[in-house]
What does this fold into?
Amino acid sequence: MDRLTKDALLAAYADGQRCFSLVNLTGVELFEVDLRQVDLQGSCLDDCYIPYGNLSLAKLTGASLIKAHLGNVNLYSADLAGAVLTEADLGRADLRGASLAGANLTGANLSGADLRGATLSGANLSGANLSGAKLEGADLTQASLSRCNLFRATGVDLDQSRCDRTTILPSGYNYGR
It folds into this structure.
């Protein structure tokens, strides 16, 4: 996996390049960056700092974003299927229509995130914080929600998800289901 610097990434993107698959961007600071439709499939973005960035329609399939800082980032309709977002900060992120199918979001912060219409089927959300998240139309089929905090989350449909007694459920749900 080739190491890529912030300057090299932004220069190539400005020149029209969109494919940066399998690159190493560990720890890169990309504050308020605009990388719409960027292809970072299989890339390593562990510990990246990308708050307020625009990654709408990005391809991040299988990418590693462990402990990445993605607060208030725009990931509208992004493909994060199979991505590793362990302990990532996605607070107040726009994930409307995004695919997070099979993603590992263990311990991730998704408080206040907009996940309307997102696909989270088979995702591991164990220990994740989804308090105040918007989940109208989100697909949580077979998503693991053990130790997950859904306090004040809206539009939650847990019928096909995997909850247990450690799951903090939103109002209107009970543990005896």
About this structure: The chain has a mean pLDDT of 96. The first helix runs from residue 6 to 14. The chain is about 5% helix and 0% strand. The first strand starts at residue 2 and ends at 3.
